[in-house]
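Weekly puzzle thread! Below is a chain. First person to post its structure in token form gets bragging rights.
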Amino acid sequence: MASAAMVVYCFDTLQSHFDGGDEPTPSFDVQQEYPLFVTWEIEEQGGTHLRGCIGTLAPTRLRNLRDFTFKSALKDRRFDPIAPQEFHRLHCSVSLLIDYEDADSYYDWEVRTEPGATGGSSIGTHGIIIEFNDTRGNFYSATYLPQVASEQGWDHLQTVTSLMKKAGFRRSISESMLKALKVTRYRSSIQKLTYQQYLSLKQHALAQA
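Winning reply:
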């Protein structure tokens, strides 16, 4: 499953891009296959904000973590490419998606609150993929990872309607459309490191060498 070594590899890969140095060698089994996402966040204004997130819902070998590191950091069209001067403020997470299941309805998946929030003490359990067609036959699809709903404080309806907009649907959303959604739920194995945690792991590895 997801490991700190995978996140260290993402940091190292981006650092080598900025420095023009040799790319790192993975220390994990690159032949394993999972759907995966690489997410970058940045510390600013007293909090953290999304800086890039790209992945694939189809199983891919972990050797492709390199490509998704670059895509999420430099080619997410929602953001400017991450700049070298931002590197020390980054957080990075690797999510490996597992346990895909068809949901019976748009609310047949589990939402939980984050630690410290009212009403619960654990992060969101399920990520979801929605698929639907509009009245003109246009097809839409989008996903949110398990942590998104809990981080935003959304319930099922808020999450699904936001996801429909993320997919590119811009018209009003009716109850009949919600009932017609194809929803797939999944879980993820996620590992996240701040830049400081990344540095500590690198220093520990050097001390052990």
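Puzzle host: Confirmed. Bonus trivia for everyone else. The mean pLDDT is 91.
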